[in-house]
Amino acid sequence: MNINPKTRFQLQIQQFIFYVLVIIVVTLLAQLTLKTNVRSDWTANSRHSLSDSTKDVLKQLDDDVTIQVFISPDSEYHSALESLLSRYQQHSDKLNVIYINPDFSPEIVRKLNIQQQGEMVVSLNDKQQHVFDLSEQSLTNALIIVSRAQQPWLVFIEGHGERSPFSQANFNLSVWGEQLKQKGFKLQSLNLVEQSLIPNNAAAVVIASPERPWLAGEIDIIKNYITDGGNLLWLTEPDSHQYLAGLAEQLGIEFVPGTIIDPNAELLGITDPQFVLITNYANHPVATATTSVTLFPQAVAIENNVDNSAWQYLPLLTSQENTWSETDPITQATVASPIFDVSNDTGGPLNLAYLLTVQPVEEDEKNKEQRIAVIGDGDFLSNSYIGNGSNLELGVALMNWLAEDDSLIDIPIKTTIDNQLQLTTTQSLIIGLGFLIVIPVLLLSIGLGLWWYRRKQ
Fold first, then answer.
1. Is residue 403 within 8 Å of 287, Cβ to Cβ?
2. 304 and 167, same structural domain?
3. I want to staple 280 with a disulfide (CB 3.0 to 4.6 A). Which of 12, 92, 181, 318 is the partner?
4. Is residue 101 domain-shared with residue 173, that is, in the same domain?
């Protein structure tokens, strides 16, 4: 090709146009990166993305929420906090995040009682919630709590040996109570002999496994509360449900005689068959929030004995088919080798819990759906057993549902999937020999082959 002055000029023009186009493309790409934010999370459990539940909560925020983050710029947690909060801000423009260096703001630290690096204070108007850990679960729950119109009251009946949310004894419910407080509930105990009126602002009443009979007047107070549309959680036991027989009659339920026996407990290494494993849940929001098996020590089965009723009945928890309700007294022999008696015992599957609802009258928009939960065991929420399986998740979900606060959903904790590679002895030997012998021999053979080929050329 002859290069003459004309051709050289044309090549220079082409080069100039090429460089101009490159500059334009780079500028446009830079502008595109500044104005767009596209992320892709390829982790197995999407641990670097917000859950759908959190996204729904952020979409429902109507007012601006301030998040004060108390952390030093050189803290090891600073980048992790920024990453977490940026995910939240990506889905909502209602979040105002302020980073505060606690070393240079001692007055604010004292005023808000800041206790640690990385602590966050979520504020909306006069409501505040402290967040102490870098988890989506804690931050989302804090957002829900401060955005609530009001904090619901839960009334726990006492005076008959009921389990208490304020006592740390193994039998009681303090662990569950603390979790409910963190979700924004306020707890109050009430003795019906001393105070015969249930507060009007009670979101739900809790009867937690009474151990002594109730007075007729006390039962009438609860029955009137239900007649007036109140929500109720009733935890009962195989040997104490008869103390509230009048309440069971009003609700249209009855208890199967005996204690449920579950041979499947051995699958978890539990030698006592009185522990009932529940894996079969109803299609209901309460069950959706329960992510795994729940464990119920010494439970009683429940049946619905009313066909025509204003109540709608939903069996929430159902045992396995090979379970039964043992009517004989539970002894060491029964525990050691349980035997199903066809003539006296009731075979499974058995219902351990019922959810009862009454739909509101359409003409009255102020009415809400009345909700009642009856559970055939209270031990599953006690301090001794609440840490087993998804017992805590079930207990919190029940109260969220009873308080008619369906938006307060338990955010799943995301953990790293176990990526360890488990190899057998044979597999380890094959891999070891491959790296030590096969691959070196193969590379040496290829090298010798190339050397021999080039020598023959």
1. no
2. yes
3. 318
4. no
How many domains is the chain partitioned into structurally?
Answer: 2
DSSP state of 74: T
Token couple for 47: 């641990």
220 in any annotated domain: yes
Those residues with Cβ within 8 angstroms of residue 247's Cβ, 6 or more apart along the chain or in another chain: 219, 222, 223, 226, 234
Q: Residue 415's pLDDT is what?
A: 47
Asked whether the CA dihedral 245, 246, 248, 254 is positive or negative, the reply is: positive
Domain extent, residue 166, equals 150-402
The answer to whether the beta carbons of residues 326 and 338 sit under 8 Å apart is yes
Give a yes or no: residue 282 inside a domain: yes
Peptide bond before residue 106 is cis, with ω within 30 degrees of 0: no
Residues 87 and 162 in one domain: no
The pTM score is 0.69
Distance of CA 214 to the CA centre of its chain: 35
Residue 430 parent element (H or E): helix 425-433
8 A C-beta contact, residue 246 and residue 213: no
**Is residue 153 within 8 Å of residue 162, measured between CB atoms?**
no
Instruction: List, as one string, the DSSP characters of 202-241.
Output: EEEEEEE---SPPPHHHHHHHHHHHHTT--EEEE--TTTG
pLDDT in tens, 182-237: 777 889 999 999 988 898 889 999 999 999 999 999 999 999 999 999 999 999 99
| Cα angle for residues 411, 416, 422 (degrees, 5° grid) | 140
Q: Measured in whole angstroms, how far is the alpha carbon of residue 267 from the centre of its chain?
A: 24
Look at residue 314 and tell me whether its pLDDT is greater than 90.
Answer: yes
One domain, residues 264 and 279: yes
CA–CA separation, 161 and 173 (whole Å):
13
Same domain, yes or no: 115 and 163: no
Looking up tokens 């491959």 gives 434
Both 130 and 158 in one domain: the answer is: no
The full DSSP string for 276-293 is EEE-EE-SSHHHHT--S-
| Distance separating alpha carbons of residues 398 and 164, to the nearest angstrom | 17
CA 268 to chain centre: 22
